[in-house]
Amino acid sequence: VPVLGGHHGGNQIARVLAGHLGGHAAVTTAGDVRFGVSLDEPPAGWQLTNPQNAKAVMAALLGGAHVRAAGDQLEMATWLTNSELPFSPTGDVRLTVGNREDGGEPAPLELVYCRQNLVLGVGCERGCDVSELDDLLANMDLDPRSIACVASIDLKVDEAAIHQLADRLQVPARFFSAEELEVEAPRLANPSEVVFAEVGCHGVAEGAALAAVGQDGELKVAKQKSKRATMAVGSSENPILADQLGRPRGHLSVVGIGPGSEGWRSPEVTQLVWQATDLVGYSLYLDLLGDLVGDRQRHDFDLGKEEDRVRHAMELAGEGKNVALVCSGDAGIYAMATLVYELLDTGGLSDAAQRIAIQVSPGISALQAAAARAGAPLGHDFCTISLSDLLTPWESIQMRVNAAAQGDFVIAFYNPVSKRRRTQLAYAKDVLLEHRPADTPVILATNLGRDGELIRVVPLAELNIDDVDMLTVVIVGSSQSQTVATGDGKTWVYTPRGYAAKEGTLIGRSA
After folding, report:
1. Could you tell me which of 341, 360, 338 has the C-alpha nearest to residue 349?
2. For 420-444, what is the mean pLDDT?
3. In DSSP terms, which residues pair with 365 in a beta bridge?
4. Less CB within 10 Å around the terminal CB: N or C of the chain?
């Protein structure tokens, strides 16, 4: 039940949810119920150009007003003419489909609909400024409301100017392969052997426009040129359903889901997962999403298959899909975001996978979660060190441990131990004891944010390596870190930032 109002998409959201849940949308909006049509939500391929008038129009209709329908595209709007609206030649409410006979502005009780039956076919050089496309469009004398999408060859799927033009027109950008565009060669007005030699089809702008409008469509405006761009227009008698054409630019979201619990997952990450068609990740991480996985396609990988899962995610996005690559903690801290950019830099991907859109969304890292559970140990300078020598030489890890110890940083140790690796944390303990007190607080945080969470605070000298596993983050305080007990029996760790020495402070003084 769309309890907050059905207009502006509420009813459609209810219908989508009902479909997913196997239920029925209880649409109670008076216009939908009485007239069998949503005047503020025309079907795909149509655009309401003045939605600000919808409220007044619906109020008038519900008050008993009649409807006049007019416009040069009216016969195409069967969704409107076949509705139960009270039509009358003298109605106070006017529904205009297409252009008004007088060319004037809409009246207060008038809604204007436009059939989206045009496609802009675009070709351009790499790095072309969008202003060239704007100028080409301005010289074509088109009604921008009739444009359904911007189309081009898939080699331009990451061309900024094309996406900027589509964004300005508020329509999608769709892309076709050279093979798909070459099918249109017999219909091109300006075929080019030069273009064929370069990209594998005889025309990009005209070919894309024609491929989008289909065999029943035609070339409305032949290729127009500027210094670095070309543009053509395809036209169809029927409204164009842009989402069913070609393919979009693939999108890869690299998301950090935090420790795994819903409460520690950011709204942005949840939204990106919700929008995804495919989820890629270590099986445990995908399981932690719970019901959010829904009917999305899962691509599960074992632990240790990091490069395989990242390549798979990028190649899926290269097919035009919306992919979420799921990481625990933060996606950029000892996680997959770095590998995404490393693969882009070093190659080995398909051309399509190298042209995807990428978004990294942060999550609560194990470092942050452990610190929050234990108090405020990161109140002053800190660093993180992974003790795993699978990808980093042990000599480099030793150098970093010694440098951090000498620098008196609070240190968070990731991957402190494994089944085969038990000596690295012991080494770090011995080095740190040379530079800070034996009673320096050490936080052992296990299963953060999940069942079995355990937070322990022990003195550095009493750190027992056998109390640590791969699910534990170890935070060792600096020489300035302190503990404080509260009346409920809890011990908290904090690292002063130096406020006690600040002029005018009362910290450390008796009341």
Report:
1. 341
2. 94
3. none
4. C
